[in-house]
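Notebook p. 47: complex prediction with zinc ion.
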Amino acid sequence: MKIKEIIKRLKEGNKRFISNTADRKLRDSTRRDLLAAGQSPFAAILGCSDSRVVPEIIFDTGLGELFTVRVAGNIANTSSIASIEFSVAQLNVRLVLVKGHSNCGAVTAAVEGGVYGNNLNRLFNHIAPAIEQTPGGNIDEIIKKNAELNAEELLNGSTMIAAAVKSGQLKIITAFYHLESGEVEFLTD
Ligand SMILES: [Zn+2]
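Predicted complex, structure tokens below:
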């Protein structure tokens, strides 16, 4: 599938979700049987773990359609980068969408500071550059910057992903999900 068509498919699925006309296809036993031997997802998503931001629901996709990597604050760390690498190298995924969302608890906590354990502090370290590079910015602007910087980090942290983008096999784009309306606002495409 061409990258343009992949983006179109995501946008159309999100429109159905917004308007309560989701078709919820490819979620039955026929689909399950078909996929038992292998998968061929049409896109990869690096999104937040937030329970309100479920890629398969907001893009109205079925089983085997999205390769989703979810981590609080949709950050690119060793594990999430490796997971995206797997989708590109083994499953020939051609589009990666890094998706932030309004009212993100992880980004808000990183902005507010506070005392946390080592693991969460390590996670917040991946969000810190977005805060630093958005002086005076509101939380939505920081969340959007965070998506952009972690998309860049996928490139900086992986020679394999960088090579796939350079060759035109792979495209990385960013988006911002609005909790209230259900709209996925594409920041780049
Ligand atoms: Zn979040």
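Notes: The CA atoms of residues 4 and 189 lie 9 Å apart. The mean pLDDT is 97.
Next step: compare against the earlier run before touching the bench.
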